[in-house]
Amino acid sequence: MERPLSHRSLPPPRDWWWVFDPRLSVRGRALLWVMGAAAAFTLLTTWLAGRLVHRSLEQQAGQYFEFLAVQVGDKIDRALYERYRELQFVASLDPVRQASVGQADAHPALNALLATSPDAGWVGLLGLDGRVRASTTSGLLNTDLSDRTWFRNAQERPFAGGLRDIPELARALGATDSDSIRFFDLAVPVAAPNGRPGGVLAAHVRWDWAKNVQLSVVAEPALRERMAVTIYSGPNEVVLDSESSGWSAPPTVPTLPEARRFRGSMIELTPEGVKYFTGYARSRGFREYRGLGWVTVVRQPLDRVFAPVRELQRSIFGWGLAFTGILTLGTWIISGRTARRLNAMAAAAERLREGDVLTVLPRPRSHDEYGRMCGSVGALVEELRAANTPPPPPLPRS
């Protein structure tokens, strides 16, 4: 018995996932192209935006870190200059000039300087023999300080020395923390009334005020982001550290370009293997105070500096994934409509092939490519059907 026409030459059953196979499905092919193009566009946009923002941020951060380093160093130089000028002014007063040759009338002037400059821990007037003639601390009167570096160097010209610890002075002032025991030596020559050298006026200036100077430039919010300020007087000698970058001890001073360039920025790799974005400035002093050649360094871990780049890339990538998902869904819906129309035409053609002479190909009303194709194929089928239909037999003559 012959099978029904509808069961002849049926295509083999296909797995459910064939619709995603670009070799078998228009939908799958459309999804492959759209998803590939959208993913490539997202990745390219993410990379390109990251590179552009990274380059711009590196330039801006370099200028910003360099500016901070210059500001911290300059403010400290200016503050030291002000104390240096105050000492010079007191050294020019008549009571101090006369006391340098044996009188003790300088005490009010020294105490006034101590009162107006609270950062000064001690002020003393020394004669040419190095003995203290007048002092804001009575315990040092007549003490021989001729072996001090600042005394030897300040007999002819003003002297600014480095930092040193003076625990006994710190205890006398009631200081307890580590920064408060450090003092900066300033000394200026004192001229006697006859114009000849008469002695030296010296001051031990507290160093803890430098923390306030540093905080006036790099505030607490920036320090919480691990931005650290460090001042070096040598490769391994740290005179100030904000202790905000998480290290137990600051790294050594970075290798700087030629000495003629006193400011700049760089990406620094420390011996511990940590990368920092670094701005630096060499001390140049202020006016006649020539500075001590200290190096101010402002650092921040590289991953913190470029965190906005990664945040931007994540945002672009997230929006790109969302855009790809919406575009994929739209492609699936639109291509599904096209696939259904093509499947309807293929089913009609299959029925015609199996001998169903009454089947009519779809005739869509649209005038797009699909509508014109259906119209052309339908007209071709009708012509072939008419050509293969035998003419009716002639009517018998009566």
Largest sheet: 5 strands, antiparallel
Fourth-tier CATH superfamily name of the domain at 92-211: PAS domain
* Number of DSSP-assigned strands: 10
CATH class of the domain at 92-211: Alpha Beta
Number of helices: 10
Please state the CA-atom Rg, rounded to the nearest Å. Answer: 45 Å
Task: Provide the low-confidence segments as ranges.
Answer: 1-10
Q: What is the fold named in CATH at topology level of the domain at 92-211?
A: Beta-Lactamase
Order of helices and strands: HHHEEHEHEEHHEEEEEHHH
Spatial order of the strands in the main sheet? 2-1-5-4-3
Mean pLDDT: 77
Class based on secondary structure composition and strand pairing: alpha+beta
Beta-strand level of the residues, as a percent range? 15-25%
Binned, the helix content reads: 40-55%
Can you characterise this structure?
This protein is of the alpha+beta class and 398 residues long. Among the domains are: 51-77 and 226-306, Beta-Lactamase, CATH 3.30.450; 92-211, Beta-Lactamase, CATH 3.30.450.20. The chain is built from ten helices and ten strands. It has helices spanning 26-91, 94-99, 107-116, 149-153, 167-172, 209-217, 220-224, 302-305, 307-353, 369-388, and strands at residues 120-126, 132-135, 159-165, 182-191, 197-206, 228-232, 238-241, 263-269, 275-282, 295-301. The strands form two sheets. It has a five-stranded antiparallel beta sheet. The protein has a five-stranded antiparallel beta sheet with strand order 7-6-10-9-8. α1 (26-91) runs antiparallel to α6. The longest helix has 66 residues, at 26-91. The radius of gyration is 45 Å and the shape is rod-shaped. The model is unreliable at 1-10 (pLDDT under 50).
